[in-house]
Amino acid sequence: MTAAPTSSCAICGAGALLRDFHTPRICVTYCKHCEHRAADHVWGSPGAPDYHLQYDQTGFLAALQQTRVRQARRILAMIRGWLPAGGSLLDFGAGRGWFLDAARSAGFEQLAGADSSDLALRLLRERGFEALLAEQGSTGCRELPSASFRPDVLTVLDVLEHLPALEVEPQLRELLRHFRPRLLVLKVPVSSGLLYRSARALFRVGAGTPLEQLYQVGTHPPHFSYFSRRSLKLLLARMGITLLREQLDLDFEPAELSRRARALQRFGGAAKALGLLAGTAAEVLGLQDSTIVLARVSD
After folding, report:
1. Which of the residues in the chain have pLDDT under 70?
2. CATH top class, domain 47-189+223-296
3. What's the whole-number average pLDDT of the chain?
4. Strands 26-31 and 88-92, sheet pairing
5. Which residue ranges make up each domain of the chain?
């Protein structure tokens, strides 16, 4: 569904927002100029009290860990191109600490993680990382305690999409003001990816569930934003942040896709082959589902 423009884009500040699609549980608009997508959710019953307990803790979690560990190695290789040895790093939205484990192995001397999840903070402390409480809500990062060091690198991975579009830039500015890193790494999902395009095509023929899963409808916090490569670059430019490098990433392991995407589970034994086909197609066509950027932050 496309209708008349409603208001200006919170990410680029230029484009008018058009209504893109809706289901009984979500309404999504997109920006004509930067193609950023913003979601309004129709809230139902609250999910589990801890975000990390709201999804399957068996097959889904194992498949997710494989992807996040692989991505950690790739991101750390990007960072080491600009910070060859040592250094300090703070991972905002550290989750289960997989990225920090990899950063420790990569030789970072000081490491800390921030998260709003009690489970995440406990797991970080158990492994010897400094753990900071990141309060949820519109003023969340304003309540952050300072790390015991000023990090050379701030990583914000799979976090910005959980913020309402109007809060993305203010929250990111506050994080940079608070921690004052030299380098910033962002990772966000993009709507140009194969999974998003496929889910959008299925919606057109009456199947809205895959799109709802991508927006994590029913969890808290869900996905409020789906970026485009253009919208992320325009956001950095608005903030005076210098882009150093960008890499696209599948954001899934082809052989394990059926454990992440419920829509494939109905295909039984053929699901693995479909995942491998999807991964190959995405890589060949440049339709990866997330983008990772490394940027330099000025004082």
Report:
1. 1-6, 44-48, 136-143, 261-269, 299
2. alpha beta
3. 90
4. unpaired
5. 47-189+223-296
